[in-house]
Amino acid sequence: TTKRLETPHRIIMSGSPIQNRLRELWSLFDFIFPGKLGTLPVFEHEFSVPIAIGGYATASAAQIHTAYHCSIILKDLITPYVLRRMKKDVAIQLPEKHEQILFCRMTEYQKEKYLDYLSGRDVRSVLTGNLNMLVAASNLRKICNHPDIFESPEEGEEYGSIERSGKLTVLSKILEGWHSSKNRVLLFTQTTTLLDLIESFVLKRKYPFLRMDGSTAVSKRMALIDRFNMDEEVFIFLLTTKVGGFGINLTGADRVVLYEPDWNPSNDLQARERSWRIGQKREVVIYRLVTRGTIEEKIYHRQIYKQFLSNKVLNDPKQRRFFKAKDMNDLFTYHEEYEGGTETGDLFAGVDVKEVKQRGDDVKPEPTYEAELAEDGDEPERQKKGDASILQSLFESDGLHSTINHDHILQAGETSMDMQVIENEATRIAREAARALRESRRERLQQSVAVPTWTGRSGDAGRPTLGRRFGSGEGRASKILDKIKERNTGAPRQQMDANVELIGKIRDFLVSKGGSAATIDIVNHFKDTVPGKQMVTFKELLKR
After folding, report:
1. pLDDT, tens digit (0-9, with 9 covering 90-100), for 284-340
2. 3.40.50.10810, 3.40.50.300, 3.30.380.10, 3.20.20.70: which CATH number matches 2-84?
3. H-type helices in 101-165, by residue range?
C-alpha cells in the first residue's frame, strides 16, 4: 500500500533493516528508491542466494569468492542511502551491558518426553512432508520450556512444578539470587501460556510483580510501565516480547531474562534493549535460557547466522563463516554427542569464545563477573552475592550445563576474518603490486639516469602523465572511476601504493643479498616493517 503513494520524498527509520533474510532489505529499498536493487527475482538470484550460500562453512571456494564480491557490490549500492548508527557508537553515557547464554539441562522426565516426541508420528509426518514443520517445532519448544505446557491443558496442583523443567529450575535460582541482591528484573516469554505458568511460580515465591501482555488494555500499559520504573518494591515485570519488547523504556530494571529464543533475532534484540537505554544508571546483565542440544539451541544458531548475514552486507564482507548448511532433519535431532560441551561451543572453538562448563566437583566454573570471597574461620562466605555466585550455585545444583558470553560470539563474527577470502585477496593484491612495480620500472628506464626519479612530490622520470592539474577539483565521475578501479584490483589506491613500495623493498633486500636470502633473514629484516594483519599479503608479495 505505501509503495502506491505519490510522495516527493521517502525516508525509512529502522533499527533492523535485515531481520531474517536479504529480501527484507530489498523491500525497504524498493520503497525509498524503486528499482535501485532491481526486481525481487533478479535480486534474489544475483545477490540473496549467492551471499547466503557462500556464508556457510561448507561453501566451496567458488561460492565463497562469489558471495564476497556480491556482498561488496551490494554494500556499495546501498551505502550512499543508509545512515547507520549503532547504539555502541553513541551510548558513551550508558553503563556496561553483559549478555550470557545459559545452556540448561533437561530433567530426566523432560528428556524422556522430548525423545518420545522426536520418535513419534508428528515428526515422521514433518519429515515426509505431511505436516507443517512449525507444528512439531512448537511442541518441542513447549517441552523445552516445561513439559506441562505440552501435556496438561488443564492446570492441576502440580502444574508447573520446577522439578519437571530444567529451565524453570535455573530460573528459580537466578531469581532467588537477584532478589537477595536487590536487583530488578524483566522476564520475557513469547506466549501467554508460558507467562501464566511463570506467574504461578512467582506467586508461590511471593515476589512482587507486574504483568503486561496482549490482553492488557492499551490505556493501562503506560501506567504499568511508569509504576515499574518508579516503584522499587516491584521485583519483576513479566512481559511478552510482542507487547513489552518494542518502543518502551524500562530502565527501572537492571536484569533481563529471555526465557526462550525467537526465530527472529530482532525480537530478542529489541526485548533485551528495554532496560539498557538512556536513563539507565546500573550495569545491565542479560541471561538467555537455552535448553542444550535441543531445537532451542538450533534456533539460537539460526539467530546468530541471520545476524552474521546482516553484518556481512552492512558491515564487513570478509567476516568468518561458522555455520554449516543443514536440512530439516537437524532440527528434529537431539545432540547427545556434545555431552562434554555444546554444539555452540564446538562451532566457535578456535576463536575468542570460551565455554564455561562444569568439569568435576573439584573444579569451580570460571566466574563471568568478579565475586568477592572472604574467609570466616575455615569456611568461606560470600560477601558479595553477584552473578558469579548465582552461576556457581547453578553449577553446584546440576541445573546449568554451561555458559557462553553472547557478546563474544557476536564479536567473533565481527573480528574473525575468513582466511580463504583474505588469501584470495592477498594473492590478487600481490599480483597487482608486482604488475604496478614492473610498469613503474619500465617507465623509469625510458628516461636518462640524469633525470631524477619521481618521488610523489618531485622528479620527472616515471612521473604519471595524467596527474591532476593544480587547482582542479576531483569530480564525482573520477571518484566513481576510482571506486571501480579499487573493486577490480581488490585494494584501495593508498594500500596499493604501500604494497608497491613494500615489494620494491623486498626486491632491494634480495639484491643486496646477492639475489637470495634465508627465510629467517627476511623475517628478521622486515619484522618491524610489516604489521601482523598484512602478513598474508607479505607472503604473497615474496612469491612475486
Report:
1. 999 999 998 899 988 888 888 777 777 777 776 665 555 555 667 778 888 765 555
2. 3.40.50.10810
3. 108-118, 121-127, 133-145, 147-151
